[in-house]
Amino acid sequence: MEENRRKRLLWTGLIGSGLVALCCLTPILVVLLGVVGLGAFTGYLDFLLLPALALFLSLAVYAGTRQQQDTSGACCTSHQSESRKP
Asked: 21-43 pLDDT, tens per residue?
């Protein structure tokens, strides 16, 4: 259960970072807001997209390091328990 939660957290961070980076680096969101009639909000996109990018990137880094720590710890503990057997 815990492993599925960590994987979901990692994928959420990666997919969110990709989508926000796509909206930051290309004018997709500006064009969509213009088509819908909300072009006046394009000036405020930096205040929303840059913190969202930082949030998703930090979420992905956190999940990745946590998953790496858990897998390296599990490897060492199982190896130590096998060496203790008579």
From this structure: 888 888 888 888 899 998 898 88
